[in-house]
Amino acid sequence: MDDLYTSPLNRGVPPARPGELAPVSIGPILADPPVVLAPMAGITNAPFRRLCRRFGAGLYVSEMITARALVERNAKTLRLAEFDPDESPRSLQLYGVDPHYVGEAVRMLVAEDRVDHIDMNFGCPVRKVTRRGGGAAIPAKPRLLQSIVRAAVRNAGPIPVTIKFRMGIDDGWLTFLEAGRIAEAEGCRAVALHARTAAQLYDGEADWNAIGELKQAVRTIPVFGNGDIWEAWDALRMMRATGCDGVVVGRGCLGRPWLFRDLAAVFAGRTPPPPPRFGEVMETMHEHARLLCAWTGERHGIRDFRKHATWYTKGFPGSTKLRDKLIRIDSLADLDAVLAEGDPELAFPPGAMRMKRGKKGGRQKVVLPEGFRDDLEDATPPEAEEPGDGG
User: Fold this and answer.
1) 3 state DSSP class of 242
2) Which of 172, 249, 335, 355 stands the most exposed, by the fewest C-beta atoms within 10 Å?
3) Residue 375 lies in a domain
4) Residue bearing the bigger pLDDT, 386 or 146
């Protein structure tokens, strides 16, 4: 193990033993290694998934697609639900609050042969979603959760359905064990737990103990753990500490798609290679930007890439000035000109291995609809369906 690029938290973690980390079957899909790219709105589109797949095998899930908009054949939604011709398996995350629209969306996806796997989001903590009773609020009403999951599974046929959720509303209102049991009873093929509450957002440390509790409660389907996989050794620690069957990687791969290469190495019992020098990072940035521009056109693609550019360069010496220019680029030519100022021989800074990327920290008071607690057995769907930014 290279101590230079291994945090003190992971130094001394023994490598995986032969057969210790087995592939996971999600219905007919074999996740080998059992690593899942977390669905992230505005990030895990087809270009990003292609880039990540180049670094390692696993299950790469689309950004969140809204069930009702899909049923109504909204052009933008249909575009987001597209996959590369060679992308396999085609894994799509569906968001919905109404069993009718969820069932119809699943029926459509299966009938038109658009997917090989459907994941459902019940973990979105965004205020505009929870205040209407959606996202992370749904598991607090178990009969509603059950009816939505049942509609999805019944209309999916042979296509496996999985669900992802958080620990609960806050520390005093945990829902994850019941959510896992409902998923198991209704025929889901796996569950994933983001080990934070909705109130926690992305703050503090994920509570891996909750993943272990869920694994003990859900015995017949795989349990995936999500939260604080910043370096590949974290996945090994999580699985050994909790007994979970696989890991879900979110913010840890932002600006670092090679994390999937490192995960493949660790799962195979090898030490990950050192991180790329800045020259290799720049090559990856070029590739990512070109893929985005080919997908949406240069104007939209390069503007979408700006946020990724800040993640790729974070932590490198002198990168603050570089980022100030990268957030203003309007073309691939602009990107080339800015990156030409960088030093390709710069080594990846060890301190950047665990630098937080993506969502900011801080907690919130979860806003729920008026009277939400009055009848938690009520299965009436919320009035509005509006997706947030993932869970």
Assistant:
1) helix
2) 172
3) no
4) 146
Cα dihedral across residues 165, 167, 173, 178: positive or negative: positive
Rounded distance between C-alpha atoms, residue 329 and residue 304, angstroms? 10
The total number of residues shown for the chain amounts to 391
Q: What is the CA radius of gyration of the chain?
A: 20
What is the CB-side half-sphere exposure of residue 309 using CA atoms within 13 A?
30
pLDDT digits (tens, 9 = 90+) for 337-362: 999 999 999 999 998 999 988 877 68
355: in domain: no
Half-sphere exposure of 156 (CA within 13 A, CB side): 25
Does 75 share its domain with 112? Answer: yes
Domain's final residue, options 274, 306, 325: 274
Q: Which of 231, 249, 274 finishes a domain? A: 274
The sign one gets for the Cα dihedral 57, 62, 67, 72 is: negative
Task: Of 141, 180, 140, give the one whose Cα is nearest residue 163.
Answer: 180
E strands, the chain, in order: 24-26, 29-31, 35-37, 59-66, 91-95, 117-122, 161-166, 168-170, 173-174, 190-194, 223-226, 246-249
Q: Where in the sequence numbering do the catalytic residues fall? A: 124
- Do residues 170 and 198 touch, judged by C-beta distance below 8 A? yes
Token pair in block for residue 285? 């940035």
**Token duo for residue 72:** 């109504």
